[in-house]
Amino acid sequence: MNAFTGQGAVVTGAGHGIGAALATALAAAGARVVVNDLDADAAREVAESVGGVAVPGDAATEEGVADLVAAARHALGTIDLYCANAGVGPSGGPDADPKVWELCWDVNVLAHVRASRLLLPDWLERGRGRFLSTVSAAGMLTMLGSAPYSVTKHAALAYAEWLSATYRHRGIKVHALCPQGVRTRMLDSTGEAGKVLLTPTAIEPAQVAEAALDAMAADRFLILPHPEVADYYAARATTPDRWLDGMSRLQQAIDSREESA
Question: Does the keyword Oxidoreductase apply (predicted)?
Answer without folding.
Answer: yes
